[in-house]
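SEVERITY: medium
COMPONENT: batch folding queue
REPORTER: lab tech (J.R.)

DESCRIPTION
The queue accepted two submissions in a row. Attaching both inputs and their returned structure tokens so the on-call engineer can compare them side by side.

ATTACHMENT 1
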Amino acid sequence: MTNEQIVSEIRNGFSTTNNMQLLYESNLPLIKKFIKPYTAYECEADLLQESYFGLLEAVKRYETDRNVQFMTFAQYWIKQSVQRYLENCGSTVRIPTHTRAKMSRIRKATSQLRQEQGREPVPTEIAALSGVSVEEVQEIQGYMQSVISLDTPIAEDNSLTLADTLQADLSVENDTVDKIL
């Protein structure tokens, strides 16, 4: 059975769950290809789950009279679903799509330079290879640092946390009001 026939069966309400599963599983290699660029930001299993929702949306919107293969049409909806997921839920801090693209180029350039040179590359080398300015490379590398909890223990006996090392400046509000006055 072709993808178009499966979609027709789903839309006609015939064994919807089983046919959606069949459509998903029979196109899984292609779906993995669609989401591969996004695996740098989130684990593949989560992206595959989200791609299922994109596939479902494509089934709802597909028009057979357009003379377009279903998976060509579905590619847009799968990518859209994955991108939306990453923007809304993909990380602790929301990062704009254009910055994510630069992060990906910087990661690739860093990896390539590390392999070629056998050492950690400097920002000027990364900037030259990735097509991003040195200032942006340094700024984006700051974004690429992982977020850690203030409750992370830093002493071996767990008696000291990262939060314990921060200055408790409780008079910030009062200081600000005094400066304004």
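ATTACHMENT 2
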Amino acid sequence: MTTIIPFEEGEKHLDWLGLTRAFDAGHQRPKAEIADVFLYRGQDTLLNRSAWIDGLGLAVKAATVFPGNPAKGKPMIGGAVNLFDDADGSLSAVVDFHLVTKWKTAGDSLCAALKLARPDSRKILIVGAGTVGASLIAAYRTGFPKAEFTVWNRTADKARAFAGAHGIDWAEDLEQAVRAADIVSSATMSTDPLLKGDWFQPGQHIDLIGAYRPDMREVDDTALTRARLFVDSFDTTLDHIGELKIPLAQGVINRDNVIADFYTADRFHRQSDDEITLFKNGGGAHLDLMCARYILDAWKAA
């Protein structure tokens, strides 16, 4: 019988560090076979993402991203996640789309930060006062429990309201906030770079989440040339997301400048306290599969 896992009931059984361990274990398995299909209509996007990991199972996630919806009082993102059994292909579970997306996205960034950020990081800047920003606070608090958080948003009133809701500070000046942070985690819908590499300080970790289309970027070229670059998956970022696709095509960076992904764990680490690390969270379908499987296992265990 197919298990149906709703958001609130499913979330009760999850923890962020447990998910990062599931990600690490998932990347020890045979490399995922993945296929992404992107369809566009203006600013609207349909993403169909599928993954198969031998021994873990299959997942199909369909996501719609309609940036104009919030102005109409509707959610910007919708979709569904289906998890299939590895042995016989039967439908094991239908997991709430927003539950998988929330935990996969923020868990991906936390998994990287635990490897790349300085363990003594105490000041975390969240760029973007949206739903993902709230998830990032929850995730990062588990990995960096002594950290203090600040949020910046293009609209100051939204940053102020977000800060009040989460009991954190808010910043009016982005450059000053970036310069003061140990970790900068950006989750915006920006197509033009808003984070400047000249602002970055030695020892920082930069976590980029927002860009998901070929025309989207959150950092400028200087940021990429000053930092050591990491991704969650070579296969789902380099040729698909503007953050890296554009500077690679223009010769600003080359393929060798992207040092490691989660499948190359022996190279996925910080080398010194002074270097700047930059991680692009691409959130591929294989991570949706690993996350959905973790959610199902936690559900069954409970």
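NOTES FROM REPORTER
The CA atoms of residues 12 and 215 lie 37 Å apart.
No errors were logged for either attachment.
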